[in-house]
Structures are given as structure tokens and as C-alpha cells.
Design goal:
elongated; Arc Repressor Mutant, subunit A; four-stranded antiparallel beta sheet; five-stranded antiparallel beta sheet
Amino acid sequence: MYDFRITYDKEEIFDRSDDKRIWQGIPSIEYTDGGKTYACFYSGMTTETIGNYVLIYRSDDGINYGEPFAIVLPNDGFRCYDPALWIDPLNRLWLIWSQAPDRGTYGAICDDPDARNPVFGNPFYIGRDVMMCRPTVLSTGEWIFPIAVWARYEAPDYPVPSGAYAYVTNDQGKTFQARGKAKLNKSVFDEHMFVEYAQKLSVYVRTSYGIAVSDSYDGGKHWIGDRKLMNGPSSRFHIRRLQSGRLLLIYHDNTTQRKDLTAFLSEDEGETWKYKLLLDERTSVSYPDAKIDKNGRIHIIYDRERGYAKSIKQAEASAREILTASITEEDILAGKLISNDSYLKRVINKLGKYCGYDPNPYNEPSLFTSEELAEYILNNCESSEIIGSVFDKLNIPCDKAHKVNTAKVDALVNQFTENGSNDKALLTEIIKEIRASAEAPAEPIVKAVINKIDSDLSAEYSQNSIADEMGISKYYLAHIFKKQTGMPLMQYINERRIMTAKRLLCESDSSISDIAGKCGYSPSYFSEIFKNLTGLTPTDYRKHNSIK
């Protein structure tokens, strides 16, 4: 019993069409001997999280893809992600993806990818945890699969240690065995690929500084070394040997950003990368995959501006594109497109205006009615956090806060608290009362309060009196002051007073009683609170720290 299913149902596919997706990325590509191009990537929900699904497309001309012909859908509480396509030596099309939270890699095979209506067979388990880069066929006839156990998710009781694993099948995908793993310093998600050399097998791994390499001399059982291949951003790359014997690397020609996506060629087994062709100079281009067809042409796929955002408006402002390029070795050697039919930056899928079934996927307060926002806050906040969350989400601006009926709001909040902090109707009324204000930063109110306190530390202050003078809700004042300063209002006042008292004790001859008065305390309470906060009486503090 699997926690996912592969569906070809037109209605289920329509439910996940372009205008019903917010973001997308992490693509893979395949090209059949019959000229069919396959592409896949994943999407679903608002980011990489539970509910993600994998979309599989097919094109007869490499330009027009239409809607997906199949989707890998997870059951509730699961996600399907990080897909890879691969045509094996038997000309079968593999679809490989990962599943969470149980973290496993699964596959399904289409025996005839050139068929009019291709269908994948029954899914099967490959290994633990994640694979998003295509396998490599070794000279021994073995197929080696790059599956990673990510260190960032490794728990003390996790059954498998982290690392870049080599899973091997000797029977054309019927069974798999984890042969060994490379564990490199500063690896990030691994996302590794294998390259076979005359006397060794090398694994290339994503790290925080770029790409690192380790070597095996026993077919992947043991790995030696941890050397740098290339500096660059922490991101997936693609490396493989071409029919000519040269090595192809697709990565960023940039040391810090996911931009300047470039195809490199090496003629000295990866020691240097003398030749290169810029594929896409823009920012937020990433995660290339490539297929070399029977004629040696290089078909490349990657994503641009996936669309992770904090609002619908921000998501729609992102490109959210899946792009392809088609080039030859000659193009890379020349540093420009010189071959017939070569092209760059062709968009095969792009998301536009979002028209999904959830009208407010990011739970934006401005898109909720007052009643909807009240229900959302009640369902997602602890009782003690509810009122603070209201002020936080409505983000009352200073120039509008004075227009709120603070007496009514405070009375409603008192009643809401007395009722047990779960009265939806009352919370809705509170939100309606304070919603007249528009979204804007609230720091000026805090600044005004701080300026008032600092100008006269001797005055008698309370949260109620300051809120009344500012013309705002005492609950709003408490919330926004702590949010901006990191401490409650009265704690701030005491700390400012004690700080001033320390200075006066060290730099002046004023009596302790006078200093207490200047800082807003009675002499007896001043001694008590000073010792509680500093560990010394005012007299002892002056004795040990006086500079006069």
C-alpha cells in the first residue's frame, strides 16, 4: 500500500492546471529515439511542503507541451517531490520521485515512451531518502543510482547515516542495493552525480561553497578524498561524459548567486573547464538537468524564479518558468550558438494569474473577512497569543491608530478574555473595530513612547496611562512595544531608570535619595529594585564603580 498514486484522470489533472498552481520547479527532461520530449517538475501548495505533487508532460515537437498527461499525487499528510526522468539501456522511461515524511525514493517504468498513450507500470521502492539526479550506466553493466540521506534531517534514531549513497542494480531495476556512501564536508542536500573514469568512479556533490569530488576504486563501496571541483552557489548541477569523451558540466559561472547558468566542457578529465557557453544570464535560474540524444545533441531543462512568496501578489510577480535549451558540443566550443536548430531560454511552462480553489492560500489578513480572520486566529494560536496575533496581522499604522475606539476595543478584549478567549463572535467584533486602519509599520508609536520615557524618568508611568496619552489601546501598546523592543513596557522603564541610576551613582555626588527621585523611585523601593537587578545596593555599587 503506497501513500501516493499515479493518475491520468483528466479532471484531476485539470484541478492542477497552470492557473491553479502558485509555484513550480526542480525539473527533469528526457528525449526518446522517436523524438518525443518528456518533462517533469513538482508543485502544489505554496512552497515545498506536505501536499506537493509531481507533474509529467510530453511534447511531440519539443515546443508545445499542453497539460500534463500524468500526475503523481500523494495521500493526505504526504508529499511527492524531487522527480527525475531517465531512459535506461532497454529504452524504457523511468519516472523517479521522492516521498515524505517517510523519506523514500520510488520509481515507475514506461515500457514504450513513444507509444501514443504512454502508461507507467506499478510503482516500486528504490531506496532511502532522496534522488533528483539521473542514474549512470557503468562499464560493468551495472546501473548506479545517486540517492542521498540528508544530514540536516538526520535524527539520532534514524536507521541510516547521512551521505551521498551509491545504489546499484545488477538486474535491470528488479532489485537495488546500497553499495556505499561518500560523506563530504560542507555538503548541502548532496544532489550528487557519478562519472566513471578509467581507474575510478567519482561522485560530485553539492556543497555550501560549490561542487566537491570524492573517488572510489572499488565500484562505489568506499570513497576517498574531499576536493573542490568549482566554487559557486549552493545549488544543483549536472555533470556527465559526452560521446566525444569530454566532460559536460552545467552550473553557474558565478561564485555566489544562482545566475549565469553555463554549459562547460573539459578535455582533461575535469581538471580544467576551458570551454563554456552562457545559457541564461538572469538571476534565480537553477537546477539544470540534461539529456544527450542519439545524435549527441544536448537537451537542457531548468527553472527560473520558482514563485515561493508571502503573498499572491508577490508570487504572481515571479517568473515561475520552466525553460529548455538545445545545444551541441560545437556551440560550447565556439562559446556561442553556431549549430542549426540550437536555441536558448525557450519557455515550456509559465504560470500566470492564480485562480485556484483556495482564494487565500497564504492566509493574508487583507484577504480574510473579519469573521474568517477570527476563525483562522482561533484555530492557529494559543489562547495567550490571540490578541497579540490580531494586532500583528492587522498591523495598525500609527497615523490611524488614534482613530480606533480604544475604550470599546479594550472593553471587548476584557470581555473576550473573561469568556475564555474562544468567543468567535467577540473576536470578530474586535477585528472589525480596529480594522479601519491600513497596513503600515508601527515603529513610530514605539519611538514616541521611548522618547517620552527617556525625557522624564522621574514621572509616574503605567501601561494604562501611556496608552491613554497616546490615544491607543493598552493591549495594542503592550503588543507592539514588546514586538519592537523585545521586552515588556514596564521592564523597559525599569531598565532605563536603573541604567541612569548607575551613571549618576558613578559620576555625581548626588545623594541616593535624590538619585532615586530623579529615576522615579522612592528611596526604599529604589534600594530594593536596584539590588534585585544588579546584585548590589546603591551604596556598594557607588563604592566599587565611582569614577570621581
